[in-house]
């Protein structure tokens, strides 16, 4: 309803984004995915944000391989640093979950993340690699 009564295009896009996020939080993953795809299609300037949302759904469902491609597309098309950082972190997380720890370390090193966040992720991956 908020989307339908939105005055500006930005308000309409944010209404769908918030609805997609809320559906995911409540466990309605298919509805969330449909809304993310609608955001990407109807509001191209928010497509990278929608890809991040859809990737998070895939990763949460255990589909790290599917999420990897979505995060990669989001990172390449990101219009803001915040979306790019989330996509980069998601990409590295997918590599880690897929067991490709060396590639995950490289991906973390190439991110635009703040140094403390980057170092924390590196340390976690290195610990995991040493256990193997």
- Please state the structural category: mainly alpha
Number of separate strands: 0
Distance between the termini: 51 Å
The low-pLDDT segments are: none
Number of helices: 8
Write down the Rg.
16 Å
Mean pLDDT, to the nearest integer, reads 92
User: What is the approximate shape?
Assistant: elongated
What does this structure look like?
- The chain is an all-alpha fold and 132 residues long.
- It contains eight helices and no strands.
- The protein has helices at 2-5, 9-25, 29-42, 47-60, 64-77, 81-97, 101-109, 115-131.
- Helix 2 runs antiparallel to helix 3 and helix 4 packs antiparallel against helix 5.
- The mean pLDDT is 92.
Structure at a glance:
The chain is an all-alpha fold. Helix content is 80%, strand content 0%. The chain is built from eight helices and no strands.
Please name the defining characteristics of this protein.
132 residues; mainly alpha; 8 helices; 80% helix; elongated
